[in-house]
Design a protein that fits this description.
Pathway: Amino-acid biosynthesis; L-lysine biosynthesis via DAP pathway; L-lysine from DL-2,6-diaminopimelate: step 1/1. By secondary structure, the protein is α/β, with parallel strands linked by helices. It has helices at residues 3-10, 19-32, 48-57, 66-74, 91-97, 108-115, 155-166, 188-208, 234-252, 265-268, 301-305, 390-395, and strands at residues 14-18, 36-41, 60-63, 82-84, 102-105, 124-131, 153-154, 171-177, 214-216, 258-261, 272-284, 287-292, 311-312, 320-324, 333-339, 348-352, 373-377, 380-385. The protein is globular and about 70 Å long. Bound molecules: ligand LLP. The site of ligand LLP has 21 residues, from α10 and α11.
Amino acid sequence: MDLADIARRFGTPAYVVDEDAVRARCRDYLAALPSVTVAYAGKAFLTQAMASWVAEEGLSLDVCSGGELTLARSVGFPESRIIFHGNAKTPAELRDAVGVGRVVIDNVAEIHRLAALVPVGLRQDVYLRVTPGIEAGGHAAIRTGSEGQKFGIPLTELSDAVGRVLSQPELRLAGLHCHIGSQITSVAPFEEAAKVMVDQLAMVRERFATTVPELDLGGGHGVAYLDDEHGLDLGHFGTAVPKVVAERCRRLRVPEPRLVVEPGRAVVAAAGVTLYRVISVKRQGGRTFVAVDGGMSDNPRPALYGARYSVAVPGRSGEPVTIVGRHCEAGDVIAENVAAGDARPGDLVVVRVTGAYHHAMGSSYNLTCRPPVVAVRGGTARLIVRREEPADLMRRDVGR
Ligand code: LLP
């Protein structure tokens, strides 16, 4: 697809997502992990179209809010393939979640809260989310597996939590869960986490004479944002992690659990680009600033995580410039050292690998309108999320 055409037709800024690439990536996952349940983590990017693609490709779906659950249900995503997460599920969310495939319990108090909501005669499948004590991931803000952060049940309290779940006739302990972090590019931390988790399956079997049928190792599979980076090797993950689990299960004499993974970023990041237009070019303080018509409202990741991107200004080259956004903050920088010294207002700017945690984390900061999402498939482009309009921004402001 000609991105310049898309920019002309749909305007800028715009998110573009390659449906064929997303679907191909879903199939890669199923092929690399044939006996593993792959649940796409909707927090990375969720629209009705995306939920439908994931459903059609046969993946499960991890949702982490009532909003994501409502969206999934709006396209008829099969309930049995939905995993519901959250460390602070509201009473309304918990009530709404009853009936999905798996509810992931984050803390001990939630066991009783959930059990009280399950209708008589039904049994809700649950996972217990465990903090396995493993540090991994791209940035401190997205490391979630160690103690001293808010998620999950510490290993020392797991036995108590298991006992409580088993004593609730409304609940069935379907599995243990952990998520050690995000943007992890090597397989080793997942192997480590898998070992710790199998040890816990053995603990449960020993103390409660119960077999836990599933083990969810969460998401966090890293991707390459820049040309000289590499993402998690899916083929390696797909052979190494199930093998580690199988071997340890054999050694500890526990039946092998069905494995589950929850990749978000790795399914969709590389399938997306963001299109902007240059608004102004200025040289000051020895630097050239190329300012575009979007910024930290559609991509907060540089400001939040120091994220770096590969940016192209097609047809331009030369001295390195700094691509900045339009927002009222000096930290609103999209990328440094982009070879585009001859950029001019009106030029197209393409930022790669923006399919995950961009649309999903967008805001209307400075009362700017959120970009549309354009999907391309088989050489044609269509709108799947329309551009926000000033009227949308005003709608909830009820005046004085
Ligand atoms: N499962 C659980 C329980 C999670 O908390 C997450 C992400 C995932 C799966 C999916 O992780 P992924 O495969 O996408 O790494 N906003 C940050 C990333 C936050 C990830 C939060 N949890 C970013 O833009 O880098």
